[in-house]
Amino acid sequence: ADGLIGQMMEPIVWKERTPRTLPEKTWAACGRGDRDHNNFITSLLIDAPSCEAHNLELHKKVLEMEKNECRWEEILLDDAEMVLVAYGTPSRVAQTAAENLRRQGIKAGVFRPITLWPYPYARLREIADLDRVKGFLTVEMSLGQMLDDVNLAVAERKPVKFYGRCGGKIPGVSEVERAVQEAWKEVK
Q: How many domains does the chain have?
């Protein structure tokens, strides 16, 4: 968990959750029980055809997760020309920076991935295809680990810039604003 979130205190709004019906976990390693076999979770399959079949089955699961499990939030993106991509604490900083930048005449918005795996590539690619969007700025508390994902999603459709801090340093709102202003000069 994000260290800052563990230290902060503010009011929260609980959202009603719709319970999901989940399939039985027949794969779980929870002892043999009444089964006629042990559940071993392994990818060690020496026989090439068995290994390939296993990998194809796993690939189907990944595709299903990409289709059904990707989550994200879009903040001020309806008319945004500059898109800040951030998660965790930097997403809160990015949102404040976007609000401030709008008062300065730069239509900024925030794309906040909620799931980082699977990453919401498809939605970010759709945003990159919008004519009004001129560029992206990835804001991170790292040295650019998510930058690779943003570059993969945008795939040279639009310029992608990076602003990050590391070692526990939190990007400041004014720092992010300056990074957007610099990026904006290059893309507008």
A: 2
